[in-house]
Amino acid sequence: MELFERFEEKGHEQVLFCSNKESGLRAIIAIHDTTLGPAVGGARMWNYQTVDEALKDVLRLSRTMTYKASVAGLNFGGGKAVIIGDSSKQKNELLFRTFGKYVDGLAGRYITAEDVGTDVRDMEYVRMETKYVTGISKALGGSGDPSPVTAYGVYVGMKAAAKERWGNDSLRGRKIAIQGAGQVARYLCEHLYSEGAELYIADIRDSQVKRVLETVKAHVVDPNEIYDQKVDIFSPNALGGILNNKTIEKLNCEIVAGGANNQLESENVHGQALLEKNILYIPDYVINAGGLINVANELEGYRQDRAMKQAEAIYEVVRNIIKVSLEQKLPTHAASNKIAEERLINIGKLRNIYSGSSYYSGRLGELARK
Ligand code: NAD
User: N or C: which end of the chain has fewer CB within 10 A?
Assistant: First the structure.
């Protein structure tokens, strides 16, 4: 019963193990909650050393997607897939088409997309077997790279945090340290630079920093020293788990706001540690929801201007989270979890009205009917 208990602990609705000898596919698809709509979340390809490691990751990531969609006001549930394997060696057409068949078998309860280790090309193979996939190229009617929309959401979320902390949302003259100079950071830096912010940037790859410096001016910082910069805002845009005992001690800023996923090494411990240090932390899944907003747009016929407009709403979402956190004396991550859960419970009540609708057939809906 141990497995079922693990699924029940965080409320997962369905976990599908996909195994196919011919293609070598070993994958797990986790559907966390479909109260708000079909579960959406990327397919991550990673060389997990054990099945348990892969399962742990997919359970954690799919749950975050439920919260992300809920807080962003989207009508999607949370899901995620992990494909076990080395993405630099084991990718091929058969593997992704086989994965596509499993996705198709879920008949729309789960919609996949690219993620770490998978790309637009892989999703095009998945598309050959199922329509329940997003993140395909613009040429094929998809939305292409989500980073511009994600970066814009991070930018407006940062401004909302500034408004709270300094009474004014202008970032002109603010010192901002950016960790990572990848896709999200690159577009984020352009917004910040045009507003007149002073940027400090670090990446483990010089080529990435160089690319950013083609369009903006910034101080280049050693990646090991980015936490120690005396700045107004620290913006993580590279890896997860970077807010931990060691780094929080070093931070010399008033706000943490960036696009990276899973920034807090331990949600409760480090969310609280930032609060105690009087650093305003903007929860990652709230501020980086632009990626999901982009995907949601693709499902309705993609238009980047509409996606950008929707990402702008992150400003008000962040303001509201800060308000709830102050009123209820909660760290911001706990306030946003609470807001997400309340929406799930409320919308779950719709099941009383249209209980036959399979679109709204989530677990919380079931609970609300009881
Ligand atoms: P990316 O791969 O383009 O950029 C990541 C950058 O971080 C790379 O340039 C890499 O060299 C650098 N990096 C890695 N380790 C580092 C370290 N220790 N110090 C400094 N730099 C380091 O990825 P991206 O698409 O820009 O995404 C960045 C983060 O945002 C990821 O955590 C991703 O999961 C998250 N995110 C991205 C999107 C999106 O639309 N791309 C949406 C939501 C969340």
Answer: C
Annotated catalytic residue 80: yes
Q: Residues of the chain with pLDDT > 90: what percent?
A: 84
With a 6 A CB cut-off, is 209 part of the ligand 1 pocket?
no
**Could you read off the pLDDT of 348-361 as tens digits, one per residue?**
877 666 554 444 44
For the domain made up of 12-63+77-140, give the CATH fold: Rossmann fold (3.40.50)
182 lines ligand 1 (CB under 6 A): yes
Rounded to the nearest angstrom, the distance between the alpha carbon of 81 and the centre of ligand 1 is 19
CATH of domain 145-370: 3.40.50.720
Q: How confident is the model at residue 135 (pLDDT cuts 50, 70, 90)?
A: confident
Gap between the Cα atoms of 294 and 301, Å rounded: 11
| Minimum-distance ligand 1 atom for the alpha carbon of 149 | 40
**Counting atoms of ligand 1 from 1, which one is nearest the CA of 294?**
40
d(CA 75, CA 106): 18
Q: Which band of pLDDT confidence, cut at 50, 70 and 90, is reported for residue 280?
A: very high
* Residue 85: pLDDT over 60: yes
Ligand 1 centroid–CA 180 distance in Å is 6
Say yes or no: CB of residue 259 within 6 Å of ligand 1: yes
- 284 in ligand 1 pocket by Cβ < 6 Å? no
Ligand 1 nearest atom to the CA of residue 146, by list position: 40
Query: What's the mean pLDDT in 122-130?
Result: 95
In this prediction, residues 290-308 reach a mean pLDDT of 89
> What is the pLDDT, as a whole number, of residue 369?
40
Q: Which DSSP string corresponds to 226-262?
A: GGG-B-SEEEE-S-SS-BSHHHHHH-B-SEE--S-SS
| Residue 179 Cβ contacting ligand 1 at under 6 Å | yes
60-242-317 Cα angle (round to 5): 65
Domain ranges of the chain: 12-63+77-140, 145-370
| pLDDT score at 350 | 76
Long-range contacts of 242-246 (CB under 8 A, 24+ apart): 242/179, 243/270, 243/274, 243/281, 244/270, 245/270, 245/273
Contact 332, 280 (CB under 8 A): yes
**Rounded to the nearest whole angstrom, what is the distance from the C-alpha of residue 261 to the centroid of ligand 1?**
9
Q: Compute the residue count for the chain.
A: 370
